[in-house]
């Protein structure tokens, strides 16, 4: 009896994925819970494990196919895999392809620039929006147009005339063309969405890191010993400082939904971390209820799982405010971009010794530039500036965080 391999639930608001890679091939033996296929979503790469031990009997969705939650990926048959893989049958039209699995459309339909027909979901959307396949470059297998390609094309109407008039560029043998991953395309689309939809402004300030650095230096060994290897960094101070400021200025923690403002009586803090596939923003849920060691342990875990590609989808959704630290890469100042639907983001930067005038004297102090980008539709300049000042005050006198003042 065969066991079906199906697309698992992919997380909040994620309904489709692309088959990125079959780890196991047809005819190979697999153990129960062994990773057999990778799916690429708009956020992360997900491994699908074998629901039972046996032999990969059939593959219903090839690499590059777009599949929906619950769709059939393949089947596992009983056996030890000793037999050779079955010969691949000649392709023939399926009368009833499995629900949610992208099947090749009839060859008589419209084709993309690659010469291959678009994916069915993409063709349906193009028909509804009256977009010709020849207008879109496909990113799927063999250059086929996916639904994501159509969405990206429709999101950039202003670029279409420019692209049409552009002179074809000359290819250079020293160049290499690599298709963007689904995650990278999603990052690009979301950043463009933030620029197009939000009235984004940025306000800057600078903070003296001396007090936090001295506190950390004095207690970091005792902190790590007491909390079993959890290291005391700067991020927990900034998370705590932002939580305190968000309580005072709730609009910075809110979002716009249609013609309503949604105020959050909790703080889910997004922490931007770098992964091999790009920047991801896992979320500290209920950060306003977390202690310093809990925050530091959670952030360290995010960093490790991001490097290993092991972040889960539910860790990347639901944020209400975000922090990004370009200082770890040496950035002295930058303008962070919003992470929709959030209305604000704090940017940290490199700590640098600078001469500062203090009580009429010049002193060399460890200074950091801070930036808050915010959606002016919901947050006034006074609120944004005051929010950043509160963060600055908490960092320059961390005793305020302990006393909650």
Mean pLDDT: 83
Helix content percent band? 25-40%
Poorly predicted regions are: 81-95, 97-108, 158-165
Structural class: alpha+beta
Question: Under the CATH scheme, which class of the largest domain?
Answer: Alpha Beta
Rough outline = globular
Number of strands: 19
State the helix count: 9
**Measured distance between first and last alpha carbons:** 66 Å
What is the name of the CATH superfamily of the largest domain? Chloramphenicol acetyltransferase-like domain
CATH topology call of the largest domain: Chloramphenicol Acetyltransferase
Oligomeric state of the chains present here = single chain
Strand and helix layout:
Blueprint: E1 3-6, E2 16-22, E3 29-30, E4 35-40, E5 45-49, E6 54-59, E7 66-68, E8 72-77, H1 120-129, H2 147-154, H3 159-165, H4 182-197, E9 200-208, H5 210-226, H6 235-248, E10 255-257, E11 260-262, E12 269-271, E13 273-275, E14 278-280, E15 283-284, H7 292-308, E16 321-325, E17 344-348, E18 352-358, E19 361-375, H8 381-396, H9 399-403
Parallel strand pairs: 12-16, 16-17
Antiparallel strand pairs: 1-8, 2-4, 2-7, 3-6, 4-5, 6-8, 9-19, 10-11, 12-15, 13-14, 17-19, 18-19
Helix pairs in contact: 1-2, 6-7, 6-8
Q: Can you offer a commentary on this structure?
A:
- The chain has 405 residues and is α+β, with helices and mostly antiparallel strands.
- It folds into three domains: 3-77, OB fold (Dihydrolipoamide Acetyltransferase, E2P) (Beta Barrel), CATH 2.40.50.100; 104-163 and 179-197, Dihydrolipoamide Transferase, CATH 4.10.320.10; 200-403, Chloramphenicol Acetyltransferase, CATH 3.30.559.10.
- It has helices spanning 120-129, 147-154, 159-165, 182-197, 210-226, 235-248, 292-308, 381-396, 399-403, and strands at 3-6, 16-22, 29-30, 35-40, 45-49, 54-59, 66-68, 72-77, 200-208, 255-257, 260-262, 269-271, 273-275, 278-280, 283-284, 321-325, 344-348, 352-358, 361-375.
- Strands 9, 12, 15, 16, 17, 18 and 19 form a seven-stranded mixed β-sheet that branches.
- Helix 6 crosses helix 7 (292-308) and helix 6 (235-248) crosses helix 8 (381-396).
- It is globular and about 80 Å long.
- It starts with a strand and ends with a helix.
- Residues 81-95, 97-108 and 158-165 have low confidence and may be disordered.
